[in-house]
Each structure stands twice: as C-alpha cells, then as structure tokens.
C-alpha cells in the first residue's frame, strides 16, 4: 500500500485496497488484530461500490487534467460523464453490474447477499446533483461553445441567432447588433463554410478585420483555463525537485529546474551536432 502518492494517482487507492482486501485480512489475522468490519458483507459491498464509482471519477479527472485541453473538450467530457451516470443508475437498479465489476465480483462470491440498490442509486444521484452545481457555469455558455465548435449548424434559425448574439453580448460586454450582424455574415460566408470541415483550425481562417467582435469572443473563450493542471503539475515538479538529496538548491536552481520540468521545448541535438564545427581550419 502507498502512504504517499502523487495527486493524480490517489483515485486508484480504493481499488488497490479492494484488490488486496483478502491479503489485508489475512495479514491482520496473523498479527492478532481483529477488524470485524472488514468481514462485514454490507461494508464490503460499500467498498466495492466506492472502488467502482471513484474509479470512474478518477478516469474523468485524468481526462480533464491534461495539457492543451480546451474548454470545449472539457465540457464535452463532463457532459458525457453526466449522461453516463444515468446508465449507471439503470445498471444498479436492474442488478446487471456491467459497469460495476467489483460489485459483480462481490455478488458472485456471495450469491445470497441481499443487495439494496436504492442506497447506491441515491449516492449516484447526489453526485449528479453536485455536478449540476459545480459545473452550472458550463450550462450558461454551452450554446456559445456549440456555436464556436460548428457555426454552420443548419438547425440554427433566426431566433437562435438573436439569442446567441444576446448571450455573447451579455457575457463579453459587447454590442448586440454588431455581434448579430457578424454571426449572420459569417454563416453566409461561402469561403469559410467550404473550409469548415477541412480539418484546419477554423477560427484561424476568420478575419479579425471583418469579424472583430466575434473573433474577440472566440479568443476569450479559447483562452479560458478550465483546469488547474498546469498549476498542480508545477507544484508537483517543485516538490520532487526540493528533495533532501540535493546538495545545493538556490532560487536560480529552482527556477531553472522548474522550467526544464514543465517546458515543452525539446532541443534538436542532431541539428546542433551538425552545426558544431569539431575541427577548426588552420
């Protein structure tokens, strides 16, 4: 068992405990320690549920905590998880346990165990309600993000354009009529529409001179940091750097080490070797 783990590995802790439960009980018996709750079937079922469900939350966390994650990708991951919770509730209610492998294993070991599905369905619904509160701001800008992802959606009508312009104007403190005109002009732009599915960065093709307000809104949305990954990873690298094995650690050393750890720059050593003159001419 790990007593100190990195922040993104903590989601696996319960699963490791679940996997080692039999060995832990055996080890405690050999020591003469008696923990009856470890043998309690209700407690074991609760542990199995927590290991399964927190594993799914950990997977979501890993999807969110990554470099170069845009707000659109993160909102999509959160929305997908919220939809998946509905199928989890059905899975628990019907006692299929296709998404809860630890509970399924527990039921196979104890076929006569009285599984109370309502208790776990309530816990899942509580998490869903908490998600609605935590990510309520995502709902407010969901239609804006959808428009930015694909502005030429045929289902958008004139009333939708008015609402989009209103939402953009209220969110970014801009002129409603100018935004509305830019949205209409953009959707009628044959050049941009033909290149919207080319695989290129669509908004890089959009002229800032022609669509100044709309381009400004898009840039602000794209620049949003939806995750603390960069901050957390920097602290994690700093913690590793400031170890007792360092013979010397000054502010300059710390800054240089941190820059090396979090930078994406990769030196082209082959090119540097080619450019190096190993023997000077006489």
Automatic annotation (TrEMBL):
Name of this chain's protein: HAT C-terminal dimerisation domain-containing protein
InterPro entries: HATC_C_dom (IPR008906), RNaseH-like_sf (IPR012337)
HAT C-terminal dimerisation domain ranges (all copies): 201-253
GO molecular function: protein dimerization activity
């Amino acid at each position: 068992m790990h007593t100190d783990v990195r922040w993104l590995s903590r989601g696996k802790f319960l699963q490791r405990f679940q996997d080692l439960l039999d060995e832990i009980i055996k080890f405690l018996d050999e020591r003469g320690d008696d923990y009856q709750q470890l043998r309690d079937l209700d407690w074991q079922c609760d542990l199995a549920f927590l290991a399964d469900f927190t594993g799914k939350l950990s997977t979501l966390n890993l999807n969110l905590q990554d470099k170069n994650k845009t707000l659109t990708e993160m909102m999509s991951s959160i929305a997908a998880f919220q939809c998946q919770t509905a199928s989890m509730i059905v899975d628990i209610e019907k006692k299929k346990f296709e998404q809860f492998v630890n509970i399924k294993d527990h039921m196979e070991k104890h076929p006569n165990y009285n599984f109370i599905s309502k208790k776990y369905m309530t816990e899942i619904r509580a998490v869903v309600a908490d998600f609605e509160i935590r990510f309520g701001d995502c709902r407010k800008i969901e239609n804006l993000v959808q428009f930015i992802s694909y502005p030429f959606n045929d289902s958008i009508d004139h009333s939708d354009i008015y609402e989009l312009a209103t939402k953009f104007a209220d969110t970014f403190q801009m002129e409603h009529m100018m935004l509305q005109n830019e949205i209409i002009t953009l959707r009628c732009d044959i050049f941009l529409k033909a290149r919207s599915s080319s695989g290129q960065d669509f908004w890089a093709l959009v002229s800032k001179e022609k669509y100044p307000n709309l381009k400004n809104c898009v840039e602000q949305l794209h620049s949003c940091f939806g995750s603390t990954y960069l901050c957390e990873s920097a602290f994690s690298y700093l913690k590793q750097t400031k170890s007792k094995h360092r013979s010397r650690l000054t502010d300059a050393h710390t800054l240089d080490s941190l820059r090396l750890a979090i930078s994406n720059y990769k030196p082209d050593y082959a090119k540097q070797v080619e450019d190096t003159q190993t023997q000077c001419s006489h």
